[in-house]
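[stage:ingest] chain + small molecule (tricarbonodiimidic diamide)
[stage:ingest] validated
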Amino acid sequence: MATIDAEPYGFEFEPATLALLMIDFQRDFVYPGGFGESLGNDTSLLLKAVPAAKRVLEACRAAGIFVIHTREGHRSDLSDLPPSKLNRGSAPIRIGEEGAMGRLLVRGSYGHDIVDELAPIAGEPVVDKPGKGAFYATDLDAILKMKAIRQLVVCGVTTEVCVHTSVREANDRGYDALVLSDCVASYFPEFQRVALEMIKAQGGIFGWVSDSERFLRALATATGREPAGAGAAVG
Ligand code: TIU
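[stage:predict] done
[stage:export] tokens:
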């Protein structure tokens, strides 16, 4: 058993039953011209999480930690898109319409896919989800159970939307979830701060919060490896 320094208290884990969950690092959220920008957001705030998330991803791969990715999006006929989600807001172009990176949030379009820096490799399942939560209407729970996973380290975007929803879903299903503060990002700095506070409040009401540097150090100790890039993660 190894321990990651975290709030509200240390996160104890076994590498064999830990998975890295990479949530929605899609061009549609992280780059201009996609769904996120269509909602009026500054996408540059999300790009800030990519370097630290990349260090965590590479360290987990090297340590043999199971890695799983999610993407938010819909079938090309939009048959899984609730009218409420389609109609909400005042975006100039909506889900399913052509944007600079293809049809917004539609599976198979360039914008829907994961950014090159964090692209999945062979052996890393990609879970396509129609909602904000990673468990709703997906086979994520089945995959985690097949792999005997009990705990999740979570990176992704956005902190208060898909990360929060997924962590809450994970908690209710009996998984321990650790969110790495510099590997998640929001379009709203205030939401980023408060969303992280909410996870760890009340004694860790639905999870733990740490950061990439502390995670990489603990992983290195647990697996007897050098903390890959941990020095670069400072700051
Ligand atoms: N809009 C926003 O902040 N997020 C989303 O719509 N989806 C995710 O968080 N992935």
